[in-house]
Amino acid sequence: MNRYIRKQRRKRGVVLLIVVVMLAITCLLLYQVAAVSFGRMRQVVRQEKQERERWSVLSLRAVLLPRAGRLIELEERNRNLRGDVGGDMAYTPVTLITGQLTLNEVLFHITLADESAKLCIPKWIAIEPDRSETEIRRLAQQSGLTLNRDLFVSNVPRQNWCWQDVIYGEGMHAGRSVLERTDAVSLWGDGRLNIFRSDLETLESAWRIAFGHFPPAELIDERKHYPQLSWQELRERLGVRESQLKILDQMFTTKSSCFSLRLKETDISVDAGREWLFVNDRDSAHYGFEF
Q1: Is the pLDDT of residue 274 over 70?
Q2: Which residues contact 256 (CB under 8 A, 6 or more apart)?
Q3: In a 3-state reduction of DSSP, which class is residue 35?
Q4: 0.70 exceeded by the pTM?
Q5: Taking all residues of the chain, what is their mean pLDDT, rounded to a whole number?
Q6: Based on the number of CB atoms within 10 Å of its own CB, is 15 exposed (0-12), middle (13-18) or buried (19 or more)?
Q7: Could you report the per-residue pLDDT of 63-83, keeping only the tens digit for each?
Q8: Per-residue H/E/C for 163-188
Q9: What is the pLDDT of residue 96?
Q10: Residues 254, 194: contact at Cβ < 8 Å?
């Protein structure tokens, strides 16, 4: 009798042990399923956010970049009518406008800039290497940029210019980002500097690179007639020698042809973000870079 009871108890103990093991295995399987499901959910949420961000950036580029020149002109006209700008010119040019827009729960800081009002490094290096190095480095340093030492001596042709290849070291120390420090120099466009829209210091540097001396007083005076003068009219009034006309036509203009759109994303939830630059050059395809 006692042997029978002990045998039954052993059976019940084995069954209980099997049940406990099965419950443990089930819990582990459920935990694994939950972990995988949670991981998949996070991946889907991340992909969905990236897709919303991608479409937001593409939408802003499609809407703003082709209209950058016109938007800058409208802002320029409005500021001059309100008297919000001042300077040595009766009608003061505007080369940069900024704004903010929240799209798909992402805050974008938007900057539209006239790249033709800046000194285009790739084009001006080829004019006169010694003079261009001095002037371009000086303009870049005033904006907080230090250019690579071998930039002006390298014989390797560059097809696609990017700031990471041009700036010495990191170039992105605390403070303004690279794109916020390119108000005097650029990498984009056909290289022709807008005589009216560039600031006086940039114009003087460009003229010294091209001709080895300061711009004539007549040019400074004619800048006050912006935006009425055409390139042909300005060209005739300057009285430049025939030998200088080729360089003048090649490196200067009165109409901008290259504009940029900078988007700086700020994720409201985590206070972090990324940055994009898009360039619309009338004579080339669109450039796009992510920083």
Answers
A1: yes
A2: 69, 114, 115, 116, 117, 194, 197
A3: helix
A4: yes
A5: 80
A6: exposed
A7: 999 999 999 999 999 988 887
A8: HHHHECCCCCCCCCCHHHHCCCEECC
A9: 92
A10: yes
What's the pLDDT band for 174 if we cut at 50, 70, 90? very low
Q: One-letter amino acid identity for 1? A: M
Report the C-alpha gap between 90 and 80 in whole angstroms: 9
For residues 198 and 89, the answer to whether their CB atoms sit within 8 Å is: no
Residue type (1 letter), 247: I
Query: What residues contact 2, with CB distance under 8 A and at least 6 apart?
Result: none
Whether the pLDDT of residue 171 is over 60: the answer is: no
User: What are the C-alpha distances in Å from 125 to residues 153, 155, 186, 255?
Assistant: 10, 12, 12, 22
- Cα torsion at 95, 290, 134, 193 (round to 10°)? -30
Q: How far apart are CA 197 and CA 117, in angstroms?
A: 5
Highest mean pLDDT among 41-50, 102-111, 137-146, 189-198: 189-198
Q: Which two tokens stand for residue 24?
A: 């443990």
